[in-house]
Design a protein that fits this description.
4-stranded parallel sheet, globular, Rossmann fold, about 325 residues, alpha/beta
């Protein structure tokens, strides 16, 4: 079903296909030997033109746990792009060596271009401020596991999800908002300063799908309404003006005092890395789920890789 497919943005897969991925990831979580060695002989190329810790390492850990191997680079200075090689030529070359490519690039649309010239599947690990679909899979799996609702499509529904921080440049926010819009009875709250509001193509998408949302500059005002709070950092690398970054970087800091009005079963997520937008004291709160979220990211990437490489299908885990 997913064999040979690329993943460039969160709507590339149907809800049914995503549900199968989540079920497969849950089986992997429950049984540490599940699908081990299923990718023996397969090779994953990880091309990271931007810094990454969790995404790159979780993909590599996922592939190694599946029995496969990895090659690639963690920063563009070690690739031939510094010599002037085009992205298309880099992808065409790497596809000669690997069975699938994972790529992060600072330019919006780079992953789409890569998928159009590559004969092997391409997975977008973040393209500028545009999309980060495997983080979205991670986020949805975490919500499903910690706040799952029976009787709703995909086990997710009837939730109020708050996004706080840099909503203008935050590709994880853009991807997750678009993906959540497909679920039943979802409402969203966007919390940001005016300069970092969610872009019109995201709010317009929600309006087109009649998904209720509100925008505010006050986290305290809406904290008690939220079932999920998705915190984000203000991304220094997306700013053209250092003064604007310094002025906005400490706008929202989640601490124990602000948590007092939150629901007892609130789930706090963060794509990480955090800088200072979540105080370390919050880590001890049972509602803080961002490190569990990072682990779910490895499980869902194991499910994704085994599916697009066809090894899960060959074992009969995902129907063709």
């Amino acid at each position: 079903m997913l064999e040979g497919r690329s993943l460039i943005e969160p709507l590339n897969f149907t809800m049914e296909e995503m549900d199968l991925l989540f079920s497969l990831a849950e089986k992997i979580e429950e049984d540490g030997t599940y699908l081990r060695e299923s990718c023996r002989g397969k090779l994953l190329a990880t091309l990271f033109f931007e810094p990454s810790t969790r995404t790159r390492l979780s993909f590599e850990a996922a592939m190694l746990r599946l029995g496969g191997s990895c090659l690639g680079f963690a920063e563009p200075g070690s690739s031939s792009t510094v010599k002037g090689e085009s992205l298309a030529d880099t992808i065409k070359t790497v596809s000669c060596y690997a069975d699938a490519i994972v790529m992060r690039n600072p330019k919006e649309g780079a992953a789409l271009l890569a998928s159009r010239v590559s004969p092997v599947p391409v997975i977008n690990a973040g393209d500028g401020g545009h999309h980060h679909p495997t983080q979205t899979l991670t986020d949805l799996l975490t919500i499903r596991r910690l706040r799952g609702t029976g009787g709703t499509a995909g086990g997710i529904g009837g939730l109020t999800v708050g996004f706080c921080g840099d909503l203008k440049f935050g590709r994880t926010v853009h991807s997750l908002a678009k993906a959540l819009a497909r679920y039943e009875r979802i409402s969203m709250v966007f919390v940001s300063p005016a300069e970092l509001k969610a872009p019109g193509y995201i709010t317009g998408h929600l309006e087109d799908r009649r998904v209720p949302f509100t925008e505010t500059e006050s986290l305290e005002k809406v904290m008690g309404d939220l079932d999920v709070l998705y915190m984000t950092r203000v991304q220094r690398e997306r700013f053209f003006n250092e003064e604007d970054y310094i002025r906005l970087k400490d706008t929202y800091v989640l601490n124990s005092e602000k948590m007092k009005n939150a629901k007892k079963d609130l789930v706090i997520l963060h794509p990480l890395p955090r800088v200072n937008e979540i105080a370390p004291e919050v880590d001890a709160d049972p509602r803080a789920a961002y490190f569990r979220q990072a682990k779910y990211g490895m499980y869902v990437r194991m499910a994704l890789l085994s599916s697009i490489l066809g090894t899960a299908e060959h074992k009969g885990e995902i129907p063709c």
